[in-house]
Amino acid sequence: MDPLHSITLTLFLFVLTFFNPGANLFVIVQTTLSSGKRAGFTCGYGIVLGNAIYSGLGLFGLVTLMVEFGEFFSIIKILGGAYLLYYAISTFKNKTQLNLNTDTQAENFRSVVYFRRSLISDLSNPQTVLFFISIFSTTISENTSFWTKIVIWLTIIVASLIWRIILCQTFSLISVRRTYSRIYKIIGKIVGVILGGLAAKLIFQGVWELISRKKLNFYKLKFSSSRLILDVKN
Predict the structure, then answer these.
(1) What is the SS3 assignment for 126?
(2) What is the DSSP letter of 20?
(3) What distance in Å separates the CA atoms of residue 138 and residue 132, rounded to the nearest whole number?
(4) H helices of 172-234, where?
(5) Is pLDDT larger for residue 113 or for residue 81?
(6) pLDDT tens by residue, 49-85
(7) Dihedral angle sign, alpha carbons of residues 39, 42, 46, 48
């Protein structure tokens, strides 16, 4: 596959994921509607950084880290899910009045919170790197040049950034925010339930993976011990 074809096909497959709503989308939309465009942009930057990290891991073959340190990624799921659950509960229980003219200074004070929230939301799902691997297994090969991989990585980052900008610009429109101001408490509860479900799924997956690995290691140890006893007897 020639470099241009690889780059174009990778970008196309990545853009298709934008239409599959997940935790990242809900975090950005909710933040933009409730706290303004700058807060939404800050959330977007966190998610873009997360995409950059995981696409880089997948693209440059560092997915072996997930094999060697699988428990580490399971713990990330649990911790990230716990944080996302905390945010979901806060969103569900939010009783503050929405201010359509968001104060810029207040947003600046909380920019680190918004960035951290979105970055954790993205990194708490290590399966993202497996998704990138599935794309790259289709669009690149062992003969793909290093510069082609760099261009693919940069296009993913740029596309991710552009999509988040579009989201923030759309949901920061005064007409959208006015409509949201009339139903934001209901929307907050819906988003809270959705994020809570996603958080619970992450926590369950992380705990289940840890338990499964411990069981597997136990059986391996038991099997090795049995073989050692048989060898000694023989």
Answers:
(1) coil
(2) S
(3) 10
(4) 174-233
(5) 113
(6) 988 988 888 787 654 555 566 676 677 678 767 877 8
(7) positive
Q: For residue 152, give every residue at least 6 positions away whose Cβ sits within 8 Å of its Cβ, in sequence order, or none.
A: 6, 7, 10, 11, 59, 136, 139, 140
The maximal CA–CA distance of the chain, rounded, in angstroms, is 82
Residue type for 202, please? L
CB 202 within 8 A of CB 77: yes
- Residue 80's Cα: distance from chain center in Å? 10
Structure tokens at 209: 């993976």
Unique residue bearing structure tokens 């073989």: 227
Contact 46, 115 (CB under 8 A): yes
Contact yes or no for 161/19 (Cβ under 8 A):
no
Length of the chain as a residue count: 234
Is this model's pTM higher than 0.90 or not?
Answer: no
Structural contact between residues 82 and 21, judged by C-beta atoms closer than 8 angstroms? no
